[in-house]
Amino acid sequence: MIVIGYSKVLSQMPGVQLVEISPLRYLISMQPGGSVDSFELALIDIIDHLTPDAASEASLLQDLRKVLMSIRRKQGMKKAEILLVPID
Predict the structure, then answer these.
(1) Do residues 24 and 5 make contact, with C-beta atoms less than 8 angstroms apart?
(2) Which of 10, 13, 32, 88 is the most exposed place for a label (fewest CB within 10 A)?
(3) pTM exceeds cut of 0.70
(4) How many domains, in total, are found in the chain?
(5) Is the separation of the CB atoms in 86 and 65 below 8 Å?
(6) Adjacency order of strands within the sheet including 16-22
């Protein structure tokens, strides 16, 4: 699991949802069937084409990309499903 701060750019990616687990801390949730490789490639494309209004997120996105790349190269990445149930 990777916990990140809020990212407007990531929250707008198709097939991706940010799940708040504590104030200002989010898990990245992908739709079933989505691959981590596709997510990483989409992230690279986003970084390469950041608009000026999203430039403030560049550091977060680049750090996330580096983490994904490092884990992938070590062949340590696995995708799993987690059930999150809000309890009132």
Answers:
(1) yes
(2) 88
(3) yes
(4) 1
(5) no
(6) 3-4, 25-30, 16-22
